[in-house]
Design goal:
about 190 residues; alpha/beta; Dihydrofolate Reductase, subunit A; 8-stranded mixed β-sheet; 8 strands; globular; binds NADP nicotinamide-adenine-dinucleotide phosphate; DHFR-like_dom_sf; RibDG_C
């Protein structure tokens, strides 16, 4: 099992639009049907992992976004309306244990957002950081850092051009560990 964070970002480094939506949603190529490699990526995944902020909009979606994946959510409370099959926990270490206990050999798609990616990186549990860089400039929005520490220990693994002008870059983070988001190392 590998924990693989995969997220889209603008060419000027923002993972959300200025209004807070995931970067991909602003890309005309994605809106018109390009998958940006997500189908191939998901073929190796059996679970989705995310923070409560990223999870909550799914509860009002007309379509459940992860029909084929076990879903794990990190958050202080279980949001109202969360389906029974979703596992939630307020403690990232305990959630990681639950993910490992349930694992049948497939990978885990760490969807985000930045704070949750930073949290699992701080635990030394982030295996891959996969970025889909979109051919767009946002001029504002949320960045991956500082939630994911700048010392993420990235080792380049691969790159490929995607239809529509996006570029996928895959880094290994195995063996690296950052600070818990919002907490300096001295307070961990
Ligand atoms: N570009 C992309 O592909 C992409 C992908 C995913 C998300 N996003 C964007 O990312 C934004 C959200 O990112 P975010 O970083 O603010 O939020 P997030 O990581 O989705 O969720 C943050 C929440 O997760 C819980 N959490 C995280 N670390 C924790 C820890 N160490 N201990 C306990 N709980 C912890 C907390 O829940 P509680 O508050 O309940 O304690 C925290 O408020 C959204 O705007 C979304 O659109 C973009």
């Amino acid at each position: 099992m590998k924990i693989r964070a995969r997220l889209s970002m603008s060419a000027d480094g923002y993972v959300t639009t200025p209004s807070g939506w995931p970067a991909l949603t602003a890309d005309p190529a994605f809106v018109s049907g390009q998958s940006h490699g997500i189908r191939e990526f998901l073929a190796d995944c059996e679970a989705a992992l995310m923070g409560r902020t990223t999870f909550e909009p799914a509860l009002t979606n007309s379509r459940w976004p992860w029909p084929d994946l076990d879903v794990f959510v990190l958050g202080s409370h279980r949001p109202e309306g969360t389906p029974d099959h979703v596992t939630t926990d307020s403690d990232p270490v305990r959630l990681l244990e639950k993910i490992r206990a349930a694992n049948r050999g497939g990978d885990v798609h760490l969807i985000g957002g930045p704070r949750t990616i930073g949290t699992f990186h701080a635990l030394g549990a982030l295996d891959r950081l996969e970025l889909v860089v979109l051919p767009m400039l946002f001029g504002g929005g949320m960045q991956l850092t500082p939630a994911l520490s700048a010392e993420a220990g990235l080792n380049f693994l691969s790159q490929r051009a995607l239809p529509g002008g996006a570029v996928e870059i895959v880094y290994s983070c195995e063996g690296s560990r950052g600070d818990l988001p919002g907490k300096p190392a001295s307070q961990r």
